[in-house]
Amino acid sequence: MNLGIEGKWALVCGASKGLGRGCAEALAAEGANVLLVARGAEVLATTAAAIQAANPAVQVLHVAADITTAEGRAAVFAVRGDFDIVVTNAGGPPPGAFRDWGRDDWIKALDANMLTPIELIKATIDGMIARGFGRIVNITSSSVKAPIDILGLSNGARSGLTGFVAGVARNPDIAARGVTLNNLLPGKFDTDRLKGTMAGAAQKSGQTVDAVRAQQAAQIPARRFGTAAEFGAVCAFMCSQQAAYLTGQNILLDGGAYPGTY
Predict the structure, then answer these.
(1) If pLDDT is split at 50, 70 and 90, which confidence band does 193 have?
(2) Closest by alpha carbon to 112, among 146, 174, 157, 48?
(3) In this structure, are residues 129 and 175 in contact, taking their beta carbons and an 8 Å threshold?
(4) Residues 118-148: pLDDT tens digits?
(5) How far apart are CA 142 and CA 242, in angstroms?
(6) Cβ–Cβ under 8 Å, residues 160 and 166
(7) Nearest to residue 169, comparing CAs of 249, 88, 248, 251?
(8) CB 239 within 8 A of CB 27
(9) Which CATH class is domain 9-188+227-253?
(10) Every domain of the chain and the residues it spans
């Protein structure tokens, strides 16, 4: 299937590795030009070079910056101001107990996982409306659908973004102009973040990492973790011409782990 995004420009955040990289690779493979953003300059440069080598016909730019800061966003938009596709993505806040979190913890979580995506939407959506095409995909979390008790900061901040997107996406001045906003909710994917979480669980329980990994995979109906390539492929479809009637939705990608009907 030709997704119809050849020549479009995509901004992909958190793109040096993991799910962000999977999205950047999938978009570039469909002929979209990509600007990759991440904090780690060395890993980011390596990723950009790999994507460029695999897709010589597209333009691949990269900016090493913290997208959750005003300075980081300014650095990105100094390189390019207009985008047809925006994939927002930032690392989730740390786990913990809600009694231990102060105002600064909440503000940091909100800045990264709610306010930064909103700022990126504000900065790019009017250009999309003017051109009659736009796709905004926010990488959030399955915890928006099924909250995780120790991830209260993430539950709260990402749920706030979800409510904001639900309203904006249905604004006729946006939805009728060829611009869609959706959220992509990952469950457990085989990324460095998951490996770190499993290492912590293994240390706490006294088990091996392999044992923890097997236990967690067994709780998923698919009996495995997702891959970044699978995630990226779904993201690319959400950015396609064919997905023009999909907006204001939360697409849960978790191997069937969520047990609810709705």
Answers:
(1) confident
(2) 157
(3) no
(4) 999 999 999 999 999 999 999 999 999 999 8
(5) 25
(6) no
(7) 248
(8) yes
(9) alpha beta
(10) 9-188+227-253, 190-225
